[in-house]
Amino acid sequence: MRSTKPPGIHLFECVQGSPLSLRTCQALVLVLTFFSYASYHAARKTTSVVKGVLDPKTSNLGLLHWPRCLNIGKLHTSESHMVLYGGWAPFDSRNGTALLGDIDLAFLAIYAIGMFFVGHIGDRVDLRILLTIGMIGTGLFTAAFGAGYWLNIHSFYYFLGIQLIAGLFQSTGWPSVVAVVGNWFGKKKRGLIMGIWNAHTSVGNISGSLIAAALLKFGWGWSFVVPGVMIALVGLIVFLFLPAGPEAIGSEDDHLNDSGKNEIGIPLLEGQTEVREKPVGFIEALRIPGVVPFALCLFFCKLVAYTFLYWLPFYISHTAVGGKYLSDSTAGALSTLFDLGGVIGGIIAGHISDRLDARALTAASFTFSAIPALFLYRTYGSISLYWNIILMFIAGMLVNGPYALITTAVSADLGTHSSLRGNSRALATVTAIIDGTGSAGAAVGPLLTGYISAKSWTTVFTMLMVAALVAGLLLSRLVVAEVSAKLESWRSAAATGLPVSSVEDA
Fold first, then answer.
1. Domain Major facilitator superfamily (MFS) profile spans what residues (predicted)?
2. Taking the model in full, what pTM does it have?
3. Distance between CA atoms of 333 and 314, rounded to whole angstroms?
């Protein structure tokens, strides 16, 4: 196969051909893709931080994601006659919060739709180039949103259009980074590796919040421009140094395959011929066993996870904890413990799924366990700050654990499924189908919460528990298949006297 070495990658060819060479390239891929997607999230997070400046009412409402057709005045009638100061037209008007909600909903919608198209493209072009274009484009339009501050732009449609295009560029990120990491790591330890690697989401959210908040005193435009410049610079580094796959550095020889077997499980490129692989089509990807159930499962997992992401600070600040109401800033800081729990949950879920070699069983176990965790947090989280922290952390582990597992290790597994007969050019398409479906749930959850929370938070948590139940049930057939395969392996091992692992490998 013809070599497609990116500029600059020759710096790492000096150790090619040894076990260290493979490990060095893998470490490079993990670091670059980690900071790549962290920068995506940092750029995405700026909007939520700046909302309180664009519309002073927003700081009293938390992070709102609903359309303007909802009468938001029901939630803050005591402030309906307040005299506004500061703000930025048109978001400082009576319906300013709803306008911000429209922008958020438009961003999430185009992000979900764009994911399907980007995945299809990703298996047909150089992932390094696609990722670079997405990052530079995201940086450009993130900065363009902030440029409205200096250009004195007050047109709602300008900001809406910028967010729509930014959402389209943002959709290039996840299919690309998962496909690149999947190209470099075999299945054996993929769950644990990707579980740790998936911490980039929380790192990006936290760093994006801190950077945007620190720059607000200089003018809200800087809160967009600086993260925009940062992601563009990281994109340039990705272009210069990221090897999208082992073939990018000419490592498709037998020695790579052998070392891959010994150190990282079965390599994804094993069994490839000199014939150029044909990219897998959208319909063909849908027919891969497990893609549809996991995609639908992720819809409901993300519905729960993103409802917490956008609404948890608001819920905490409007719920008496230990008989006291926490400030908005305290509630926002406290809510980060849910993300921290999610990082730990993703690592644990990945490790367990590796040890059991049962992704569906692990994901379903976490989603079913999240149901009592959500009930306990709603019921007993208000007793004291101590109990609120513990129950929130546990809920974060169980809610985000399967979400992280499905979007990383499961997507990579299915993108290299045995039904593809060694064809590795399905990773981006499969990842896009799964996460694109999940992103639709990410938009639906916060939207429904905007309506339901106006009447009852207990009803909101009931909705979340039902969503977790449905997510687990959608994997029931895959769970049964995994358990049946395990039982058959154990029976075969008992009959032959061989270790269970030997029978499963065979």
1. 31-484
2. 0.74
3. 12
